[in-house]
Amino acid sequence: MHHAISFSYRMRCYSHHSCEDCESEQQRYQRYSRIGTSSTFEEIVISKGPAVKRMNAKRKRPDTISDSVTEQERIVHEVIRSKQDMGISQQDMKREINLHSNLIAKCIKSLVSKNLIKEVKNIHSRRQKHYMSAEFEPSNEITGGAWYVEGSLDKEYINVLKEQCWRKIYGLKVATLEGIADAIKRSNVSQIELSKQQVEEIVKALVLDNEVMEVRSTGTGEFASIPVGKACYKCAGKRGYGGEPKLGALASIPCGVCPQISRCTPDGIISPITCEYYKKWLEF
Amino acid sequence: MVTQYGIKYAVNLITAHFGDLVAKVCECLLRKGPLTLQAIVRSTELTSSQVKNSLLVLIQHNCVQAFILDQTGEHGDGAKQSTQYIALFDNIIQRWRFPKFLTMVSKKLDKQCAELLEGLLQHGRLSLKQMFDRAKSGQNGGDDVVQEAFVKLLNAHFIERCPASEPVLTNPTKEEEAARKRAAKSGKILEVQETLEQRVVEAAMPTEALRFLFATETEPTADGGKDKSNSSSVTPGEKRKHDALESEAECGATDEQVVLWRANFDEFIWCLRHKACIENVRARFDDGAVIVFGAMLEATRSAEKKVKTENSVPLSLSSIYEEVIKSEEGRNITFDRVRASLVQLSCPPFVKAANESYSVDFKKIIELAQNEEVESIVLKRYGRDAYRMFRLLSNSGHLLETDKVADATFVEKKETPIILYKLWKDDYLQLEKLQIGVKQIPFQLWKVNKNTLKVHVLDEMFHAAFNLSQRVAFELEQEKELSNVLQDKRVNRLRKRLLLESSQMKLDDAIMLFHDF
Question: Where do the RNA polymerase III Rpc82 C -terminal domain residues begin and end (chain B) (predicted)?
C-alpha cells in the first residue's frame, strides 16, 4: 500500500545526462518499480540509484577501440580508460598527456560523440568536467554513493527516509536495525529495497539529530524480545519528530549566539550597553 | 576553575557589593594568586591601611582566606612563616546566589530561618549573640525564636562554624613542586592555583565533628573544648582537631573567645545539584520515574561525602520502594511500578543496576546536561548541520576525517570543511592535519576535546553573565532617569529588567552545572 505523502516525481540516472537517455531509463524504471499511472492518489516515488544502477549492468568491455578514432583520440581514450571507475578531469588529463589542451578538448568531444567515453559528475569537483570510459560505472567515491544524485546530495529523499524511519521506531517503541529495515520494507515506503547499511546510515543520522537514541538491550522489560547487549533505538525525549531540542541557558540570550562575543568588552565598540542584538531582544 | 571572564565577573560582584577599593585588592589576588600584605600593597599601589581594611572586609565575607605557608629552609635553616592571602573564587561567585539560598531555606524550613540566614549572608559571619542582637533590633522575635531557627539551620547543615583564621600550610613536596613546574610550562597556572585554594580551604575548615557542633551552654574556650555540654564524638589526640581548636582559640573578630558562624555554601550547592538532577529526569521521563528518582536521592543523601559525588550508594529495590511510599505523591505507587521506573531510568543510564542494587549516576546526569547546553549553543549559533557534526565528533570521542564527517551527517562534501572551520575558529573543535605522501593534500582530522571545551564554554558563560549584569545596571540607571515619564514606558522598562534578571538566574544555573556540580 502506498503512503499518501506528496513527493516530487523525479527521475535520476547515474549514467546518463541527456533527456533522450533519461526517457529510455524512465520507461525501464517504471517497469521495475510498478508505479501506477493513476492520478487519483499521490504516490511516493523514491527512485534511487541502487535500482537504477542494477538496471544498468556493466556493458561488456570492447576488446578493441574502433578504427575510426585518430591516434590522439586513442591516446586520450587509453588514459581515460586506465582510470577505470574513477575517471579523470580534463585538467588532470593535460598533466598526463603531452598534448595541447585544445587538442585534448577536441579528442574528448569526438570520443563522447562516438560513445566511447562519457561525462560524469564528481562530487569533489563539481565545476570541472570529469570523464570516464563508457564501459565503467562511476565509483561511489566520485558519485558520493547512494545518497547523491548528479553530484548533489539528495536531501529531500534523505529527509523523507529519516521521517519514515523515525515513525517506525516510534511505532515499535524499541527497535533494532533489522526491525526498522523490515518495517520500512513491509510498508513499501521506498520502492527501492534499502540495504541494512543504508538503514543504519539513516538511523545514525537520526541519532545525530537527537530524534532517536541508541541504547543496549538489557533483555528485560521493553527489551525482552531483544538479545542482551544488542544495539537498539528509541525515540528521544518527549517531543515529536522535528521538534527543537530544549533551548539552553546561554543559547537563549543574545550573547550565546553572538558571533562577536570574543570582541565584546564593557568599554569597546561592541559592548552590552550598545549591543544591537540586546536592543532587539529587549524590544517589547 | 578560574577563567579570564570568571575573574571579571567575580570582580564585578565585589565592586557592586563593597566598592572599588575592596574590588581592587580582590582583583589583585585573583589575577596574581596568593600574596603577602606587602606584595598586595606594592601591586595595587594602595596604602597599607587601605589594603588591610579591604582584606578584613573580604575575610569577613568569606571571599579571602589567610594562611601561613610554612617554608622550611633548604639547608636546615629555621622555618620561614609568612601570612599570605588567597582569594576564594568559588565563594565570591556564590554571592550572586543569595536569593536562591534564601528561597530554598524558606521552602525547606521556615520564614524565621530565612531571616536568620539573611543576616549571616549580609554580614558574612556572626556570633550567636550578634544574631540575637540583630533580631531584637529588627523585632524579629526573641532569643528563643532565634535559637530555635539557629538549631534548625545547623541541623540541616545550612550554617557552619567559621574556618580557622590562619591555618598553617606545609611546603609542597618535591612531587608537587615538579607538577607545578610542568603545569607552569604548559600554561595551566590557573588549575594549579585552584588546587592551592582547595588545600587552603581544607586546612582552614574545622573537622566534620566540630563544623556543625553547637555548644548549648558555653562557647568552647582556648584550652580545647572542655565544655561538658558538647556531645561531640571528637577523639583527643587527632591532629586536625587539635589544629582546629587551636585555631578556634585564635579566630574571631573580637577579643572574646566566641564562635562565629556563617552560611555553609556547600550544602546549598548540594541541594541545588540534586534539584538540577531531578529537573533533568523530569524533562525526559514520566512523573512516576521522577518520584522514584527523588526518593533515591532522599534515601542516599546522608551517605554522600562530598558535593561532587559521582555515584550514590547502592540501594535495593525494597529500600527504594519503602522510601517512595513515604511521600504523599508516592503513596499510590506499586512495587512493580517502581521496578518499571528503574528500568526506564537506566536509559539513558541515570540509574545503574548491579547485583539487584541500584545507584544514581550523578556524573552521567551532569555530563548529559552539560552536553545539551553546549549542543544548544552550537545549534543556535552555527545551524543544524553544524549541530549534527558536533554531536558526531563529541559522541565518537576521537579524530574523524572531513569526508567521514560529511558522509555521516549528510552534508555536501564541499560545505563540510567550511562549517568545521567555523567551529574550529571559535574553539569548539580541535584540528589535526595528517600528511600522507609529499604531493598529496593533507587530511584534516577533527575532534571535540571535552575538557578544554568545558573551560571555554564556562568562560563564555561568565562573559555573558558579566554582560547581563552590565546591562541590568544600565537599565536601572535608565529607569531612574525616566522616573517622571509615562506609566507605559515605565512598565516597559520593568518588563525589560524582569527579562534580564530571569535570564541571569537561568544562566547562573548553567554556570553551576559547569563549575560547581
Answer: 149-367
Asked if the Cβ–Cβ distance from B343 to A153 is below 8 Å, we say no
Nearest CA in chain B to A125: B414
How confident is the model over A105-134, as a mean pLDDT?
87
**Amino acid letter for position B50:** Q
A39 φ, ψ (degrees, to nearest 5): -105, 15
Query: What is the pLDDT at residue A150?
Result: 77
Q: How far apart are CA B416 and CA A124, in angstroms?
A: 12
Q: Least CA distance to B384: which residue of chain A? A: A209
Q: Which pLDDT score is estimated for B169?
A: 85
**Section A169-193 average pLDDT:** 84
Confidence grade of residue B170 (pLDDT, cut at 50, 70, 90): confident
Residue B81 β-bridge partners: B70
> How sure is the predictor about B2, in pLDDT bands with cuts at 50, 70 and 90?
confident
Partner-chain contact A249 B509, CB within 8 Å: yes
Q: Is B509 on the interface with A (CB under 8 A)?
A: yes
- A199's CB contacts (< 8 A; 6+ apart) are A165, A177, A180, A181, A184
| Chain B positions in Cβ-Cβ contact with residue A271 (cut-off 8 Å) | 470
Grouping H, G, I as helix, E, B as strand and the rest as coil, residue A130 is: strand
Note whether B282 contacts A: Cβ–Cβ < 8 A.
no
Q: CA separation (Å) from B178 to B174, B175, B197, B198?
A: 6, 5, 18, 19
* pLDDT one-digit tens code per residue, B72-93: 655 555 556 789 999 999 999 9
B261 confidence band (pLDDT: 50, 70, 90)? very high
- Contact map slice: A 73-112 vs B, CB within 8 A: none
With cut-offs at 50, 70 and 90, classify the pLDDT of residue B126: very high
* CB neighbour class for B435 (10 Å; exposed up to 12, middle 13-18, buried from 19): exposed
* Mutation site, A213, A233, A255, A260, interface B, largest B CB count within 10 A: A255
Q: In sequence order, which residues have a C-beta less than 8 Å from that of residue B419 and are 6 or more positions away?
A: B382, B383, B385, B386, B389, B411
What is the pLDDT, as a whole number, of residue A26? 46
8 Å CB contact of B372 and A205: no
State the cell numbers at B495.
Answer: 518588563
ipTM: 0.83
- Nearest Cα residue to B425 out of B372, B381, B375: B381
In this model, does residue A221 exceed pLDDT 60? Answer: yes
At A47, is the pLDDT very low, low, confident or very high (cuts 50, 70, 90)? Answer: very low
Q: CA A126: distance to chain centroid?
A: 15
Largest alpha-carbon pair distance within chain A?
Answer: 80
Beta pairing, strands B126-127 & B260-263: antiparallel
pTM of the model: 0.79
Angle at B393 between CA B391 and CA B394, to 5 degrees: 60
List the grid coordinates of B77.
635553616
C-alpha separations of A139 from A15, A96, A122, B393, B402 in Å: 11, 21, 10, 27, 19
Task: Give which of A13, A16, A110 is closest to A65, Cα–Cα.
Answer: A110
Interface test with A, best of B388, B412, B421 (most A CBs within 10 A): B412
